[in-house]
Amino acid sequence: MSHPLYIAFIWHQHQPLYKSPGSGVSLSPSQQYRLPWVRLHGTKDYLDLVLLLERYPKLHQTVNLVPSLILQLEDYIAGTAFDPYLTASLTPDEQLTQQQREFIIQHFFDANHHTLIDPHPRYAELYQQRQEKGQAWCLANWELPDYGDLLAWHNLAWIDPLFWDDPEIAAWLKQGRNFTLSDRQRIYSKQREILSRIIPQHRKMQEAGQLEVTTTPYTHPILPLLADTNSGRVAVPNMTLPEERFQWAEDIPRHLRKAWNFYKDRFGQIPRGLWPSEQSVSPAVLPYIINQGFKWICSDEAVLGWTLKHFFHRDGAGNVEQPELLYRPYRLQTAEGDLSIVFRDHRLSDLIGFTYSAMPAKQAAADLVGHLQAIAKMQRDSQSEQPWLVTIALDGENCWEFYPQDGKPFLEALYQSLSDEPHLKLVTVSEFLEEFPATATIPGEQLHSGSWVDGNFTTWIGDRAKNRAWDYLTAARVMLASHPEATEENNPEAWEALYAAEGSDWFWWFGAGHSSNQDAIFDRLFREHLFGIYKALNEPVPPYLKQPVENHQAQANHAPQGFIHPVIDGRGDEQDWDKAGRIEIGGARGTMHNSSVIQRLWYGVDHLNFYLRLDFKSGAAPGRDLPAELNLLWFYPEKTMVNSPVPLADVPDAAPLNYLFHHLLEVNLLTQSIQFREAGDNHQWQPRFSRAQVALNNCLELAVPWADLQVPPDYPLRLILVLADEGRFCNYLPENALIPIEVP
User: Fold this and answer.
1) What percent of the chain is modeled with pLDDT above 90?
2) Which of 632, 631, 611 is nearest to 744 (CA)?
3) N or C terminus: which one in the chain shows less Cβ crowding within 10 Å?
4) What is the three-class DSSP state of 364?
5) Averaged pLDDT, 170-188
6) Which of 279, 578, 319 is closest to 454 using CA atoms?
């Protein structure tokens, strides 16, 4: 019997608790919520995703709704939640304070400008004024209608295009400018109306059988780290741990029970699936999940790889080798009982999350369907009696901000293709497990302790600032334990503050690895939740909680913080490069010193290209202020291949310039033409075709397709930049180093 290829999409919808403890008691309503993302993502991302799916009844999917998200949606629906953005939006123009005006100019463009600002002429006009003339100019020159329009557009732009045919919304989009307070009040009412439909729509589609809704531990904590922070050393044996060991496994059943009861109340049935926060698992947490009654969980292919001691290699097209190991559910066996687990295809999930937004919608959809068809062919060729299940699991909110029209054209093209393809069948995870229970087993104690980020916990522990936050949390948890009279029944404030502080998001933003212009607010919120524990217990608040956990000044040099998709136009758009790696050149000592014409270097990747940007001193011109030839040379560490030396005269015999390289891209900065070459025998260089893009305006931007380099996914390579003049070496960067790159 031949099976179709079964595919389980799982969309994860999550927001941390932006609600400050004590809201509605000692704080004014405008201080209740520190950030607006529940309200804005609520109008843009949660309802449209399932409404689109409903149009394709053959397609079944799973959506995970985190309790802390639902709680906050309910506050906004009730009209009791106010964030600073909303408070400003509902303030009469003439009553805006100077502080509010500064806040509006700084933060009401907090959106991807390509997709959410540029499509709206008036919003784009205001954005360009701020970008080109600066915040001080806006503050000095803007009049009340400018503020009124910006307040309206920041709210309008986040309303999903699926709702643009609503007569009121269509009228606002057409109006464009001269928005009044009354307009903004009606926009806010429309936001609440959209939010109010989210949970009923999910419940309705679950009852109809097209959707499965799952849940997550109450406030999205990393369960293995609640059980024992030492679990961080399973994947990283030399990890630096917090000074105090956090071991409060008793909090795990509390989070699970609250999520279970919360779900049962909202959806009228019990949940079957659990999305462990950040897909983090360990042997220690399994008994609690089983005892609560959950039937299945999900994690990442890296966790399966560590568990099986098998690294999932991919072929040149990006498809998994030995797919039968990944594309099946497993049964975790423990003394408390068994639990099913599915593991997501990391690459397919990341293509949707980070890369397809940079491609035309139909081309991106065809690429994903092509991967699935290739897997279906491998399944048929294997003649397996067991059906395969491809799990694609990712954030269901953050990626769409980078897609045109919030991903609607992409999802429509994808869903239509999947509806038309007879060999591909979309199912909920529970549907699949009920028809095809897991037969492969993994002893519970063999399960790897890790997450969906590199199969470890370094995103949340091990860094100095992250560890300091864990020590603060430990001290507060010990304080709560010293008050046995403070139960959840008679002191719910203390426990709610604890649960909020145990959420994963604060640790995500602390330290190296992730950063945003709201790091200081996340830092403050974490400390406010801890503050709430001491306050509820009538204990003195430790002085250190009144100081930030870390200094939030932007670091000069840093590694890439995520995928990037810059438009190659030589303009260096700040949003395009905000997650790129950065190396300061101008301030370095040695060959590239303070007076260097090249000031800094930016680099990053997605699944399609390697990206590079060079910032020059203002007014600098190639051929006059810097050499006209830029050479990119790729070095492949510990790989056996034909390599050649740098093909320039006067190259110093010193590392890394005396290394042998495999690929060379020469860029003529005067003509912006390129020559691409590959190392040949006898230290020669052979010309090759390249689709690299180059643009030089106020900076140099480059995109080099991975297809040019012909390297498979998960491949390490290194890059050096060499400047030359008529074939003679001038200098190189970065100094005494190579740029490390990992092919996604």
Assistant:
1) 80
2) 611
3) N
4) helix
5) 98
6) 279
